[in-house]
Structures are given as C-alpha cells and as structure tokens.
C-alpha cells in the first residue's frame, strides 16, 4: 500500500499492470522516464485452517524502460516481453531476462532485441528515370512474395476506384496470383490508353512522355501495395500463450497485427552470432564449445560486419553476379568487376582486423560449410528428442507447419547471406591477402568450390524467393515422403518422431528435402506438378552449371514448363535431352512406368513408352503440332510393326485435331493394319460430315477404299435420324459426280421413302417430293431399258419380293405428292391427304380450284376425271364473266381486281389482259389446246356442255373447234339443251360445207340420219320456230 501512495504522489502519467503465474509487472510512465516494476507475491498458509493468512509483495526488480513509446507488454516467469515504437516510427520488440532464483539478485539492466522481419522498402535500389519500370514493379509486387494476395486485391480495388471508367472484374480479382497479375496489367494498360488519348488532344506525344505516364501508373499501384501492406502489418499488441504438457510448460509469444500474427522463435547458433553483438564473448567463456566452433562464431560475426559494411548497390551487384554467373572459371574472370571487392573499408579495415583475431581461417570456413551442409534425413528418426521451453505449438498442425516453413525460409536466407559474404571474402583474400601459398591453394581448390556448391544449393530460396513456395511444399514432405521412404521404424513411430522434432530440427529436415543433392528431385517434381513455371526456370538455371544430379530430370521439367506455357518448339528441343535418364532417374522412371521402383522390360519398350507418354502430354496441352514430331521420332525408335501402326494412328488423330484432313487421309492409307485403317476412315468420314467439309470427301482419292467408304457413309445415313439427310445428299452427289446415275437414283429414292414413312411433317413431305424429283431426273438421262430401280427394303418382312419402280410410277408419285403439298400447305394432316385415292384427291383440288395440278394428276392416274376438271374450270370462267358484267366489287374476284384461282394455277404461259374474265377464258383455251387428242374431244365437249347448261356465251374458238372436230356431238349438245335453232343452223352449215362428202375424209362418212330426224321432229313440234322456213331447207 505504501508503494501505491508513492506512485500516486509523484504524478504517474500512465500505469499498466500485467501478471504471470508467479509475478506481477507494473509499467509506470513519468515525465522524464519510464520503468517496469516486477513484484513477486509471497503467500503464508495457516497450518490449522489451510487458508492464506497473509500476502507479502516483494519487489523482484525495477527495470528502466527504453526511451520509446510503449505499445504493449507481456510477462512470463522468465522474461518480460515488450513492443515499442521508436522516434522514426519503426516497430521494435525487446525482451528482458528475469532472475527468478534470488530475491534481490543483481540485474544487468540490458534489453535484448528481437529480430523482426523487415517490411519496409528500403532494401531496394533506387529506380532509374527514363526506363520502363513495368517489369521491375511486376517482379516486386507479384514475384517477390512480399505482398500477400489480399493486399494486392485491396490495392487493385482502390486503384480502379480512382479511375472513373474502370470496372472491377470479380472473377479475376478473386483468382490466383497469375490472374491477378494479368488483371493488373490490363487495368494499368487501359488507364494508360485513356490518359494518352486525353493528352493527344493537346498535341502529339513522344516515347518519353508515354514512358513517364506508364511509370507513374505503376508507381501509383506500387505505392498502394506498400500502403496496404504496411497497414495490414500494423502492430496492435503482444500475445503470450502457455500450455502444460507432462509437467512441462511450453509457451510462445508474438505480435498481433491488424491482418495477421507474427511469432517469436529462438535463434539458432548462426542467427545468434549474426544478429547478436555480444555473442562471441559468450562463446569465449563457454567451456563446452570447441576451438573450431568458437572460430566459426568469430567468422559469422565478421560476416555480419561485412553485411553491414556493404551498401545496397554493392549487395545488389553481388547478388546479380551470383545469379548470373556461368561456370566457375568465368566467375574468376568477372569477380574483379564487383564493387564489393573494391570496398576500401572492408579491404583495409575490417578484413585485417579479422585476420589478426582468427588463427585458422580455412578450418573456420570448413567448419561453417559442414554446419550448413544438409543433414541426413534418416538419422533424424534414430534419436530421441527431449525438448524443454521451446517456442512451438503442439495443438495445431497447420500452425506449427507454418512456423516451421517461415523458420526454414529465414534460415536459408541467412545461410545465403553468409555464404555470399564468405565467397566475397575468399575473392578478396586471393587478391589482397598475404597468405602462404598452400593456404591460397587450399582455398582455391577445396574451400571456394565447396562454397560455390553450398551457395548454389541455397540459391533457389534466397531473398528473391516467395514465401508461398516453401509454404506449399516442404512441410508436406515430413509426412508424405518420410514415412514411405523409411524402413527402420513403423509408421506410428515415425509420426511421433516427427511430432517431437524441435523447430530447428524440423527446419534442418525441411532444408534437407529442399537441397537438390539430397532430395532425390522431389522438389523439382513438385514444382512441375504445380506448374510453378517462374520458379522452374530459376531452379533449373541455378542448378544447370554445377549440379550433376538429375540433369535429365531438370531438362524434363523445364520442357514440361515450356509446353505448358505454349512454347512447343523449345519443349521439343529439351525432351530428347532427358532420354538418357529414363533408366535410372526416379522422376523419369515414374513418368515412363508409373512406378519409380520398376523398370521397362527392354530399351525399345522404354523408348516407346516414353514417346507415348510425351505424346499424351502434348495432346493434353493441345500442342498437336509437336505431336507430329514426336510420332516420327517414335516410329524411328521402334521396329515393332504393331507399335508403328499405333504411332500412325496417333499421327492420324493429330492431323484430325489440327484440321489437316487431307494429311490425315494420307496417313490412314499408309496404315498397315486393316482394322485400324477402317476405324480411321470411319472417324475421318464422321468428322468431315460434322464440320460439313463435303468438298474434301468428294475430292479424296480413294485408293481401293471406295467401296469401304461408301459402305460407311451408307450405314451412317441409314442409322442416322432422317431429319439430318446430309449423308444422303452427299451420296447422291458422289454417285452423280462419278456418273453412276442409277445408283444415285436408288439413294435418292431411299431417302424419299424414309422421309415419307418415318415422319409426318409437311417439311418431310416436301423432302419426299424433292427426292422423287432427283430420282426421276437421274433415270431420265440413262437408257429407257435401264430406267428402273428396286424398291428399297426399309423394314425386314417375311415376303421379301423384289419390287420394281419405273419412271411411270415415279411420275405418278411425284404428281400425287405435289398435289398433296398444295393441299397441305396449312394443314397438319398432310399424311392423311397422301393416303386418299385419285378421285378424292382430285375432288379436293377442284374444291380449292387447283385445276392445273388436278389435270396433271388425272392424266397420269385417272383420265376419266379430265372432263370433270374442265367442267369445273368452265364454271369458274363463267363465274368470272358474270362478276365482271354484273359490276360486282373487287372482293368477289380478288383484292386488286384479279382472280385468285388464276394465280394459283399459273397463268404465266398465256397473255394476260386487264380484264380478269378474258384472262380466265384465255387460260381455258390454252389448257384445252395443250391437251392430247384422245382426251381433247371429251374435254372440249365437257366445256361446251357446261356453257350450254349455264346458258352462257359460247366462245367462238370453242364452237369452231367442236364444229370442225366433233360436229355430231356438237349438234347433239345443242339438242340436249333445247337449243333447236343453233342445232338447226349448224346442221345446215354442215351440209353447206359438204361436211359429209366423201372427199372430205379418207374413209367413208356415215350420215347422221337419226340426229337429223330427231332435229326435224323437235322443230316441227316446237311452237317457237317458223315451220315454213324449215321445210324448204330440209
């Protein structure tokens, strides 16, 4: 209580309290300083009651706080964790070691720093003006791994929000990093075009202005990414988690940020020596450390000083040299050009002082190289690991895996920096050091080559590598690859061993899986399976000049990467380079045999399987132009005819996919196996019908395959739905083109019969009509004796008699179908109309006044109906005349004064006049003139009788024809209708013209005595005629 009063009395500005299991910490902020007071409560227990009798608060220690702004602090029994913000706005995390053994022990009052990952942009080189910075910004944003997907999405949203015409593509904005990059490129390019269009209104633009605009937009987008990355990483506070397992307390600490959390972990020896300024002094006083380890730590401390001495430009130049160097001999020639080698402070100050402190530099470097060498994976499961007080999480596998991966990334990055600086020191010593010859020789022959190998092994995961790459691969190998590859322990024991590994041991194990010399190309296989093409290119490039392991496999995954990105010809150049590895390299054996532990039965079988797998891979990627090259290579590497036939079939399919139909046909012709040849021909035929390239089918030279081809098309036509008559049309054209007219007629008639029998629509009835017309046209060209076909067998019946179809029957079917089409234009029952007999069909057509078609049908099927048709036609003509003479409206004849039925019967062959009635009579005259003679007499008389029955005017041409050709029937018609005077006058005219004289006809003429007697009888009994005038004449 006294302490509290004192605190209040001296005017505390801020006070915060935190506690642990046995301690309490208070933070006090005064005007001039701040401090932490750690209090340890002590309890007294009453022995009689077992309750707390008193509590004594003892001050454990008082710690002067740094002169920073406190964000948060946490307390555990061993350490005090704090989070600060310094004057520059940078975040610093510090911890303080507490002495919990004594009550009033002495304290060194030294805060220990926690090394935080750098999230600033200060490590990048300043950008040059006047150059295209698009690739630079793309590399920083999308390939460095610094910016998470969420940050890039947020930056794109804000970038588009400030552009009025930009629209956000939700599918692209929520996709993977590759699509995000493409979307960002399209957005910036669209904005660049708009700004260019605006500026061009004021005048033309040069290339420099365009470059400046582009760089400005990319810089704006990059600043958005920096802003939102910094905002997402803004610290909020600290967290401290403790877990009790088997009487042991495990805990972890970290920073709570706005969008994620950061975890603290214990540094390994290299990290402690690199980041800790007082580390070497601790190792000097440690009796358990050997002399080699102490000198190695001295070397690490010196390499840390070298890192601080190098400028950003020198580091970048050194990194570029390491990444772009070729062979080791070339690096000797170019190392003198590196600016870091000429660093005066390093050469004249740091290096001499370091050489005076170290006794055996070569041994120190070799100890360091042995330390960073990947461990033997199998040995990690033969040891028991008893770990206490480690920053680990045992309750969540995903979280512990994430921490292990982050640790691996940081460890590899640090080892890369150490190896890079060590390589630099070796170059400097060789040029500026005064070592003995054997020391220089050892460095050149052993140490520097081994350093090159080690640095190359860490190159795929240096500072340029994205964190997501490790997150996606390495930790999965702990369970997926270790367990099946270990034969010493059971699966349960291995799983427990993996669980009990410390964080550092997990890190070393992951590095062992990543290192190309020890991972059996598992990482390269994983890169290829996940299509990480950028990293595949970097991985292969970095290992190409030094790594002898799995060289064929590297060419293979590089070729697959080229293939997936559309560079087919580069892939074709690299795949043959991987042929040598199909017998001994794991990934290639797995690719060929599906099992890395088995081998092909023979070299030729292995080559054939390899080419088949490659062909399948190319086909999957749609690179059919490369398949042809592989097929030819496969044929050259095999002597088995069956295998060659298979490759020829693949070549055929490839040509088909590419649309090379003529080449596909030429390929199938060369195929030696008849069954495959027929299958390929069937496939090509079906495809050409699908794409409607019938011109190719007509022009192909069928070398002995014409019958097979026609059978395929015919079977396809008969099995296909008749609604698609493309095959029948092609067959008809093919046979007509080959002048096989009779066969073409058979195909056309078969198509027509199927349309008639299988369908009921008007469209198919029209198709039936066209098919019969084509059939009739084909038969009309050939000789009359061969102008017939056999009725096609559509359905198999018991009585399989052969039915002949000649031209006459075809004409009857054609005319009948035409009449049915005329009657069924607006009638759904067209099939019913076709089933009527000729009499009923003609009757329906007369009702519709379709006289022309009715006459055609009657002439070929029922000639006795011809006079009836003319009677109806005459009645229509009489009606037209009556309508004209009586002055009826145009609606009685037609909308524009024409007769509708005249248009339906085709009056194009006659002369039309303005008077519709005259046109109708002209049409009747023209139709009668076209009639054959054996039907013309009855037709004329039918017309004449109908006019007489309707008491209409008889045209002169009709009376003239009847008088000259059928005088007896002509006069009798008058008599039947009571027209005695006209009968009398025509009879007299017959005698006057000596119609009955023997010279008029070649044969004898019989005098119509009965008719004349009947005419006289009627005249005598008639009261309306002059008997005096008749008697002299008769």
TrEMBL record:
Provide any one GO MF term from the record: structural constituent of nuclear pore
Main subcellular location: nucleus
Q: Where is the NUP160 helical domain?
A: 294-457
The source's superkingdom equals Eukaryota
Subcellular location(s) of the protein:
Nucleus
Q: In this protein, which residues make up the domain named NUP160 C-terminal TPR?
A: 820-989
Q: Name all NUP160 middle TPR domain ranges.
A: 516-780
Q: What keyword terms does UniProt attach to this protein?
A: Nucleus, Transport
Can you list the GO cellular component terms from the UniProt entry? nuclear pore
Keyword Cytoplasm found: no
Q: Which residues form the Nucleoporin Nup120/160 beta-propeller domain?
A: 18-271
Classification via PANTHER family: NUCLEAR PORE COMPLEX PROTEIN NUP160
Protein name (Swiss-Prot/TrEMBL): Uncharacterized protein
Native source organism of the sequence: Anopheles epiroticus
The organism that produces this protein has a lineage beginning with:
Eukaryota, Metazoa, Ecdysozoa, Arthropoda, Hexapoda
């Amino acid at each position: 209580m006294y302490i509290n009063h004192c605190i209040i009395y001296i005017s505390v500005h801020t006070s915060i309290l935190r506690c642990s299991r046995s301690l309490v910490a208070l933070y006090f902020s005064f005007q001039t300083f701040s401090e932490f007071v750690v209090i340890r409560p002590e309890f007294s227990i009453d022995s009689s009651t077992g309750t707390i009798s008193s509590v004594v608060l003892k001050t454990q220690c008082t710690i002067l706080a740094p002169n920073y702004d406190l964000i948060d602090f946490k307390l555990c029994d061993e350490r005090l964790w704090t989070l600060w913000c310094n004057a520059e706005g940078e975040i610093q995390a510090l911890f303080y070691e507490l002495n919990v053994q004594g009550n009033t022990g002495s304290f060194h009052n030294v805060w220990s720093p926690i090394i935080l990952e750098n999230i600033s942009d200060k490590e990048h080189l300043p950008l040059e003006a006047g150059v295209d910075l698009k690739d630079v910004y793309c590399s920083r944003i999308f390939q460095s791994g610094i910016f998470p997907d969420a940050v890039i999405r947020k930056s794109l949203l804000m970038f588009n929000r400030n552009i009025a015409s930009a629209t956000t593509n939700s599918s692209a904005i929520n996709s993977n990093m590759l699509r995000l990059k493409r979307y960002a490129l399209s957005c910036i390019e669209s904005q660049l075009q708009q700004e260019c269009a605006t500026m061009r209104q004021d005048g033309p633009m040069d290339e420099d202005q365009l470059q400046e605009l582009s760089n400005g937009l990319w810089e704006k987008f990059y600043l958005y990414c920096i802003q939102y990355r910094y905002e997402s990483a803004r610290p909020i506070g600290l967290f401290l988690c403790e877990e009790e397992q088997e009487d042991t307390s495990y805990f972890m600490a970290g920073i709570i940020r706005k969008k994620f959390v950061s975890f603290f972990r214990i540094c390994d020896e290299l990290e402690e020596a690199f980041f800790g300024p007082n580390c070497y002094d601790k190792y000097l006083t440690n009796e358990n450390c050997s002399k080699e380890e102490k000198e190695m730590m001295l070397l690490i401390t010196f390499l840390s000083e070298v890192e601080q001495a190098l400028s950003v430009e020198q580091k970048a130049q050194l990194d570029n040299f390491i990444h772009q160097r070729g062979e080791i001999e070339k690096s000797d020639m170019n190392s003198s050009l590196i600016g870091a080698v000429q660093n005066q402070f390093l050469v004249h100050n740091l290096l001499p002082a370091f050489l005076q402190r170290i006794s055996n530099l070569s041994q120190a470097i070799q100890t360091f190289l042995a330390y960073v060498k990947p461990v033997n994976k199998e040995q990690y499961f033969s040891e028991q690991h008893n770990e206490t007080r480690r920053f680990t999480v045992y309750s969540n596998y995903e979280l512990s895996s994430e921490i292990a991966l982050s640790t691996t990334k940081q460890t590899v990055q640090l080892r890369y920096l150490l190896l890079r600086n060590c390589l630099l020191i070796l170059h400097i010593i060789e040029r500026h050091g005064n070592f003995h010859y054997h020391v220089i020789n050892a460095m050149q022959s052993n140490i520097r080559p081994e350093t090159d190998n080690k640095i190359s092994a860490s190159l795929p995961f240096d500072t340029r590598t994205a964190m997501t790459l490790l997150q996606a691969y390495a930790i999965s190998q702990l369970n997926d690859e270790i367990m099946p590859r270990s034969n010493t322990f059971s699966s349960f024991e291995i799983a427990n061993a993996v669980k009990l590994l410390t964080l550092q041991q997990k890190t070393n194990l992951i590095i062992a899986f990543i290192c190309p010399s020890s991972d059996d190309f598992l990482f390269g296989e994983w890169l290829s399976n996940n299509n990480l093409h950028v990293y595949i290119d970097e991985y292969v490039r970095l290992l190409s000049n030094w790594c002898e392991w799995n060289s064929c496999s590297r060419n293979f995954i590089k070729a697959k990467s080229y293939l997936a990105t559309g560079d087919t010809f580069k892939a074709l150049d690299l795949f043959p380079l991987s042929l040598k590895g199909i017998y001994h390299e794991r990934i290639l054996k797995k690719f060929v045999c599906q099992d890395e532990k088995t081998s092909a039965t023979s070299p030729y079988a292995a080559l054939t399987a390899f080419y088949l797998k490659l062909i399948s891979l190319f086909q999957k990627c749609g690179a059919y132009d490369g398949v042809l090259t592989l097929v030819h290579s496969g044929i050259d590497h095999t002597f088995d005819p069956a295998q060659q036939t298979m490759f020829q079939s693949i070549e055929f399919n490839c040509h088909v996919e590419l649309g090379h139909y003529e080449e596909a046909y030429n390929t199938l012709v060369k195929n030696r196996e008849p069954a495959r040849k027929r299958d390929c021909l069937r496939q090509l035929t079906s495809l050409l019908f699908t794409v409607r390239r019938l011109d190719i089918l007509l022009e192909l030279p069928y070398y002995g395959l014409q019958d097979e081809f026609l059978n395929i098309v015919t079977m396809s036509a008969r099995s296909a739905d008749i609604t698609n008559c493309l095959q029948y049309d092609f067959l008809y054209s093919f046979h007509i083109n080959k002048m096989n007219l009779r066969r073409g007629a058979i195909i056309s008639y078969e198509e027509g019969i199927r349309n008639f029998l299988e369908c009921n629509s008007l469209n198919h009835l029209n198709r039936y009509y066209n098919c019969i017309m084509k059939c009739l046209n084909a038969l009309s060209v050939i000789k009359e004796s061969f102008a017939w076909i056999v009725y096609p067998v559509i359905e198999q019946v018991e009585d399989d008699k052969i039915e002949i179809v000649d031209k006459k029957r075809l004409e009857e079917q054609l005319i009948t179908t035409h009449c049915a089409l005329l009657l069924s234009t607006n009638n759904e029952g067209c099939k019913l109309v076709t089933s009527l007999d000729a009499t009923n069909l003609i009757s329906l057509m007369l009702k519709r006044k379709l006289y022309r078609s009715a006459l055609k049908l009657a002439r070929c099927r029922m000639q006795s109906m011809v006079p009836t048709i003319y009677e109806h036609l005459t009645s229509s003509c009489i009606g037209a005349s009556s309508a004209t003479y009586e002055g009826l409206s145009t609606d009685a004849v037609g909308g524009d004064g024409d007769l509708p039925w005249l248009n339906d019967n085709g009056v194009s062959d006659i002369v039309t006049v303005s008077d519709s009635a005259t046109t109708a009579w002209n049409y009747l005259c023209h139709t009668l003139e076209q009639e054959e003679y054996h039907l013309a007499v009855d037709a004329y008389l039918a017309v004449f009788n109908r006019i007489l029955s309707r008491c209409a005017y008889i045209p002169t041409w009709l009376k003239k024809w009847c008088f000259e050709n059928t005088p007896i029937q002509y006069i009798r018609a008058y008599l039947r209708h009571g027209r005695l005077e006209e009968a009398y006058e025509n009879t007299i005219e017959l005698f006057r013209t000596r119609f009955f004289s023997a010279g008029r006809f070649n044969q004898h003429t019989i005098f119509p005595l009965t008719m004349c007697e009947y005419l006289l009888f009627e005249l005598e009994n008639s009261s309306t005629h002059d008997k005096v005038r008749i008697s002299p004449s008769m």
